[in-house]
Design the sequence.
């Protein structure tokens, strides 16, 4: 009986083992296939993704180290990467960051052999550029600045200020930023009250809380970024500032940690690159900015790809379809999918564009000629259709620019203390223009000093009720606005 049972087991394993072996896919090397695996769009597309996503670890910046991490991985039949391994190491933190970014890129064109899609192992170098070593002591990042608050490469005779900025090892602010001024060869604390660490909670799109982390006011005037994270600390957005101005890049992240959109700022335009969550580039876009008070913008789209890598818009001409998660109009606690689609010609919208919420709670249709809206209509939650002929409009001060300048001339008071100290400059105040023309959600986003900040905020609050609200697709909407207030000595 035992002998028969052992024979049965032997026969069972003889049948089982070959089946298991056959189930393992054959993995080829690049020289063994007819068409090697490669990033969609070529190595240039991968390098663009890498530039946007690779973050050199703080401690590697401190040491100033540079070098190459070489990784291998297997490109599967679906274009995803797996089995990522390090074949050339640099240092543990750089190795981990290289692996993280390489795993995020899943927009590969698979290899082919004899007409069939096959698995292939690929190798890719990830380069970390050397940098001047950074001063990072006890979790605090130290930079030296000249009289105009320009960052200096090291401590030298031009130094007038020292900035001490607590950052965690992910580069996220973790405490009060302190600016010191060099007075009689000694460091004295400067503008301390406007450098306080802030962690503000606000609801996210899904209803879960998110947190904005940064330094109140003066971070925007000096150096660094404000970031938004979720309850687990995952980075959602990052906005960079320098000397009180939005310097870029401004970055939004997908839930998997890959960059979704990156804004880079020039003097009169933004360059905007967008990616799908798998690393496939989605869009190349330029946004031309008009006068800050008029807030006019012109968007031009040069190229667009779908998530499978097909380029649908080339040289500014073609068809595009966008997908975005939004709050439903029938249930603000629920998300739905907005699908927008239409044609571009010579980088501008042309013909009919439509937008539809997947749950049917919102719909719009617009007709364009060379990027100019000719007519549109929208319908919210099966209400009456609203026709419109105006482009989406930003808020406008009643009477326009001349009336706004007259209002400021009449109501803005230059604090005596600032005049005595010969202090001048520009304070920028942000606020929301509500649908009835009143204002709310005030904040100083570019600071000079406390007395000038208070006066700028005071005069802006006196404008409440004097604004014409913004319009989006025929409906009045609440819009955030930035207003520069100048204090100039005669």
Sequence:
């Amino acid at each position: 009986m035992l002998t028969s049972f052992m024979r049965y087991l032997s026969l069972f394993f003889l049948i089982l083992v070959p089946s298991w072996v056959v189930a393992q896919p054959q993995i080829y090397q690049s020289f063994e296939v007819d068409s090697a695996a490669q990033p969609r769009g070529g190595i240039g597309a991968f390098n663009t993704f890498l530039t946007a996503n690779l973050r050199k670890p703080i401690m590697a910046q401190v040491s100033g180290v540079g070098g190459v991490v070489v990784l291998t991985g297997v490109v599967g039949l679906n274009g995803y990467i797996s089995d990522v391994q390090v074949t050339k190491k640099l240092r543990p933190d750089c190795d981990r960051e290289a692996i993280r970014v390489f795993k995020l890129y899943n927009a590969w064109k698979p290899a082919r052999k004899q007409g069939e899609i096959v698995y292939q192992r690929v190798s890719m170098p990830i380069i970390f550029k050397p940098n001047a070593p950074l001063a990072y002591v006890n979790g605090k990042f130290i930079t030296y600045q000249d009289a105009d608050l320009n960052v200096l490469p090291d401590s030298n005779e031009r130094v007038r200020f020292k900035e001490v900025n607590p950052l965690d090892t992910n580069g996220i602010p973790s405490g009060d930023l302190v600016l010191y001024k060099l007075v009689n060869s000694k460091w004295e604390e400067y503008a301390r009250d406007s450098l306080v660490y802030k962690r503000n909670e606000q609801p996210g799109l899904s209803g879960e809380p998110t947190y904005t982390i940064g330094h109140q006011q003066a971070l925007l005037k000096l150096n660094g970024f404000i970031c938004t994270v979720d309850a687990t600390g995952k980075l959602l957005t990052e906005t960079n500032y320098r000397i009180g101005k939005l310097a870029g890049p401004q970055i939004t992240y997908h839930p998997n940690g890959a960059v979704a959109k990156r804004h880079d700022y020039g003097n009169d335009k933004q360059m905007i690159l967008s990616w799908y969550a798998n690393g496939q580039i989605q869009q190349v876009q330029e946004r031309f900015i008009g006068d800050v008070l008029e807030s006019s913008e012109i968007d031009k789209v040069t190229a667009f790809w779908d998530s499978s890598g097909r380029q649908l818009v080339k040289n500014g001409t073609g068809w595009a379809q966008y997908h975005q998660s939004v709050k439903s109009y029938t249930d603000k606690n629920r998300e739905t999918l907005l699908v927008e689609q239409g044609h571009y010609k010579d980088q501008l919208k042309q013909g009919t564009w439509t937008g539809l919420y997947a749950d049917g709670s919102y719909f719009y249709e617009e007709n364009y000629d060379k990027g100019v809206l000719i007519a549109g209509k929208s319908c919210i939650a099966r209400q009456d259709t609203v026709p419109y002929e105006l482009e989406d409009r930003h808020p406008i001060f009643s009477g326009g620019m001349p009336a706004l300048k007259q209002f400021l001339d009449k109501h803005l008071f230059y604090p005596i203390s600032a005049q005595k100290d010969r202090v001048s400059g520009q304070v920028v105040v942000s606020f929301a223009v509500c649908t009835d023309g009143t204002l709310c959600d005030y904040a100083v986003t570019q600071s000079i000093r406390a007395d000038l900040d208070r006066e700028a905020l005071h005069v802006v609050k006196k404008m409440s009720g004097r604004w014409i609200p913004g319009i989006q697709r025929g409906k009045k909407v609440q819009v955030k606005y930035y207003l520069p207030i100048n204090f100039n000595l005669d």
About this structure: The domain at 396-487 is CATH 3.30.1150.10 (Fusion Protein Consisting Of Minor Coat Protein, Glycine Rich Linker, Tola, And A His Tag; Chain: A; Domain 2).
